[in-house]
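Annotated sample (chain length 128).
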Amino acid sequence: MPERALCGGDPKTEALVDQWMCWWIGGPETAIDALAWEVIIKPRVFNQPGNDPGIIADAHRRIERYLPVLDKQLEGRVYVVGPLTILDFLIGPRLDTAPAILKFDMSGYANIGAWQDRLKAKPYWSTA
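Output written by the structure step:
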């Protein structure tokens, strides 16, 4: 089914997409959101105290715990589960912008960096 290709295309890959989506949403994305809330949204949007060192340190620890998992997964793969799927479009944009804005280091993750380069090479990436 061509319309399902970005969801995985076959039952096994679809299950992997679901698994990695749950991992992303429950792990790294939650940590990135906590960091964004603390350093950007609270102080700049709601004019509330932010930048709590404990919350920021916890978010950084969680990001540092999860990124090696993604980096390992990308080892020897072109995209997260092999073929290009919605998962790459779920994770890719956040890791394209969040590190610079939220000040976390991605330089130690060569596989993530190469994967991001492949995504950025897509003709639609810069206009999306």
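Annotation: The two ends are 25 Å apart (CA to CA).
Annotation: The domain at 11-122 is CATH 1.20.1050.10 (Glutathione S-transferase Yfyf (Class Pi); Chain A, domain 2).
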